[in-house]
Design goal:
Strand 2 (46-53), helix 2 (61-76) and strand 3 (82-85) form a beta-alpha-beta unit. The chain is globular. The protein is α+β, with helices and mostly antiparallel strands. A three-stranded mixed β-sheet has the order 1-2-3. The chain contains three helices and three strands.
């Protein structure tokens, strides 16, 4: 069944992404921040995350996403095409909570 193989593929990709995030996480936590995985779109390769903790107010959060999280994910999981921070989208819409 195609549906089962698609679900297995989605789970496999999500598992790979989660594993890499666990490798990245200690560096963020060392600076009082963290990252939460919100989704992996297997069809587009888009990964959606949210930076939390000190990362919310950090001026380098865009750099953390692109040069850190996205770069490492693309290197280790070739199916990943981009990483989006949902916190950014919320901030643009005026609904972000800042501490």
């Amino acid at each position: 069944m195609a549906d089962d193989s698609e679900k297995d593929s989605d789970r496999r990709l999500e598992t790979l992404v989660k594993d890499v995030i666990e490798i990245i996480r200690p560096a963020l936590q060392a600076d009082e921040g963290d990252v939460v995985l919100h989704g992996v779109n297997e069809k587009t390769g888009e990964v959606t995350v949210e930076l939390i903790g000190a990362c919310i107010t950090c001026d380098s959060s865009d750099q953390t996403i692109k040069a850190g999280i996205e770069r490492v994910l693309k290197e280790r999981v070739p199916e990943v095409t981009s990483v989006l921070n949902i916190g950014e989208a919320s901030a643009e819409e005026g609904t972000a909570v800042t501490l």
